[in-house]
Amino acid sequence: MASLPRIENNADVRFLGAKLGEVIRAYGGDALFDATEAIRKASVDRARDHANGQDGLGNRAALDLGLGKLDLDETLDFVRGFMLFSMLANLAEDRQGIAAEPDADFASAVATLEREGLDHAAIADLLAHALIAPVLTAHPTEVRRKSMIDHKNRIAELMQLKDTGRKETPDGDSIDDAILRQIALLWQTRVLRREKLYVTDEVETALSYLRDVFLPTLPALYQRWDRAFGERVPSFLRPGSWIGGDRDGNPFVTADSLRTALRRSSEAVLGHYLDQLHALGAELSISSEHAAIDDAVVALAEASGDAAPTRADEPYRRALSGLYARLAATYLAITGKAPARGGHLVGEPYANPQAFRRDLAALAHALSANSPLRSGGALGRLIRSVETFGFHLATLDMRQNSAVHERVVAELLTVAGVEADYLSLDEAARVALLRRELASPRLLASRFTTYSDETTGELAILAAAAEAHATYGPQCITNYIVSMAESVSDLLEINLMMKEVGLYTPGRTPDDPPVAAIMAVPLFETIGDLEAAPAVMTDWFALPETAAIAQRRGHQEVMIGYSDSNKDGGYLTSTWSLFQASTALKPVFEAAGVGMQLFHGRGGAVGRGGGSAFSAIRAQPPGTVQGRIRITEQGEVIAAKYGSRDTAMTNLEAMASATLLASLEPARLSNADNTDFQAAMATMSDTAFHAYRDLVYGTKGFRIFFRQMTPLAEIAGLKIGSRPASRKKSDRIEDLRAIPWVFSWAQARTMLPGWYGVGQAIAAFPDKARLADMAEGWPFFAAALANMEMVLAKSDIAIAERYAQLVEDPALRDPIFGRIRDAWYQTRDGLLTATGQSRLLEKHPALDASIRLRLPYIEPLNLLQIELMKRHRAGEDDPRIGEGILLSINAIATALRNSG
């Protein structure tokens, strides 16, 4: 039987593709299968010609003709088939893990550092205060429904069984038949959401990853690290989330959504602990007749109240019965409902996770006296879970725009009779006023006064955060991100608002500094913000009270934004500005005696900071990682990196090892090279910045060109997020969020945010030999070029030209697209010169093969999307046209993988 993917060498891809072919033939019939196969062959031939140096344009007419024979129903089925193949190809690729990188695992990183002269104690000291946190966000570039992801994950589990040589599942089904059944279910599952996503939907989606992947994976990963390091490592890697707390531009995030996110997370983690305790009760059947029992275990057993005669000689089981009763009471106290599996004993709720851990540690200590039971086992994993996840599962960040805080504080001050026109004050006057108010125990808000909806809502969500601290513990919310932070007053304002709900307490004496239960974190997003970041933080630490808070905490976080800085200044300038800001912040923190913790706001696409996290972390400026780093994980990247336990373990380990290396490795550049290379980057960044700004913001009609060329308007029809696409009701690019900006260019195969301006910068730089040296010896520049190279390989300027034909005015279209086309070739040629290659990805064969595998399946989807967009924009109202456009957006995003 013919099968769709005959061009691939990967055995998994061939197997899964053959099964998909069976499903298409079974449910779509021979006609659909034959038409799909004919289009596939034509597209493969075109891709082959392109790879052999031909432009493939001669095949395009035949390819278009084949697509033109499909009616609308067949078009929808065809798009679904190509989308499913891309999904299955992704699955097969993920099973092979990340392309092998040296030191991308913890043991190798430790060995490398020890070879370079670092002793064990130095590594242990770093780990003692380290924090690595992947932070899940709800940014809407995951276009697949959760049902589709679930079926894909079941296929992955079945493939793992197949790897072991088994022919049947534990239930007796044939594994091959079970895989075929899951693919058939994928074929028959509705791809598109019919209803808009709400914040609660996003909470549940993130919870599925935290509960099903992070909870079981991290304790197992820590056991591996303990063995590799030769001692128990601290619990330095902990997950975070923005979902339910990030209300910057999202009016649907409220106090209720924050409560929901925290309650659902707590239910999940406490339910997991109860299940683990139940399993431990079955396992620890140790009898006092055959083992000496530690006094602490006896005390826990006696305190449990478990008088069952069958367990009279089993103190561990009796002790665990008591722990279970107390945790069940904790579950009831926190969530307001009884756990699914109730116990027969009644206990007092635990005051905090630390109290629960102490009881578990007492059992573990007693077991360690019996050497065969010394290793972690299930009890060790549960202790590690409590250290890592607490009673909250994932630390939830709060975020809001500084402009909102300004208005709220202005209203509070006006109503309280303190300052009638706060917004008219200059920065110095604002800071002086805010410091006076923060030093006073007097509150501004009154329950007898009516405030605006905005102020009421902001105070309500902060009150919910204070409730959460009391309920779940202070680790449930530790950071408050202030978007568009431009000054010290932007940070003081959130402290003043937190004081209203008891999250900020003024100091009583000079020796008793104030306490901020949640850290105000500035987010520097634009190029200008990044340049100003060191000055803002210098002024922040110059205030004695804020410096004292940071010194007591030991660190201060600064978030740097990749997305908006890219949209503001282009790829090269954004990347360089982030590097410069990080470098310039380091001495500011050193002078203040405060540890620096950078929070990297990365997206999936290279235009939003995407690419290999391992390479990106290692490419950070020397001395800026310091063992502490947080990174956003957004959209489709979450499913790609954390869709299964195996992929999660691989990616989390890569993140940990990269952080270890970036924190402790000696500098890899001499001072002279570092100076020369940075001077070269500054020059190229300036050239790239002006080229990018001139095109995007300086070209008349560019926003019309962009909106007509790309499926920006059509993307709005996807029910993929709760947040509006623009910050304001306007068609200005400045007001468009970075995600739809990048996502639209990716759909049109232009990928402009990931490369435009770089070609002009390389062409204008006279010393090409120095560029080659930078590409070879500077991790920062090498990573920047590698990410851009991936973008260029995924783009297709000939297909982009097809999209440009959607622009109605030729006088607008032709000159603008001509500039884009010429710059693409110039960028490609410049990159090849700098890296010493004859073609893109010549030095990266695994990535090259991965992208080439998908290209024949993306081009027909692009061509169909263009045709459907033409018909839709011409006024055709057949609902299948709109559905086809949305399906094609879904399919192209699936095939490109990191497009948003």
Automatic annotation (TrEMBL):
Membrane-spanning residues: none
Pfam families associated with the record: PEPcase
Enzyme class: lyase
Cofactor(s) required, per the database record: Mg(2+)
GO biological process per UniProt: carbon fixation; oxaloacetate metabolic process; tricarboxylic acid cycle
Enzyme Commission code(s) on record: 4.1.1.31
Catalysed reaction, written as an equation: oxaloacetate + phosphate = phosphoenolpyruvate + hydrogencarbonate
GO cellular component terms attached to this protein's record: cytosol
Active site positions: 139, 567
Top-level taxon in the UniProt lineage: Bacteria
GO molecular function: magnesium ion binding; phosphoenolpyruvate carboxylase activity
Keywords for this protein: Carbon dioxide fixation, Lyase, Magnesium, Pyruvate
NCBIfam families (alphabetical): PRK00009.1
Quaternary structure annotation from Swiss-Prot or TrEMBL: Homotetramer.
HAMAP family for this protein: PEPcase_type1
Role noted for this protein: Forms oxaloacetate, a four-carbon dicarboxylic acid source for the tricarboxylic acid cycle.
Family: Belongs to the PEPCase type 1 family.
Protein name stated in the entry: Phosphoenolpyruvate carboxylase
Organism: Sphingomonas oligophenolica
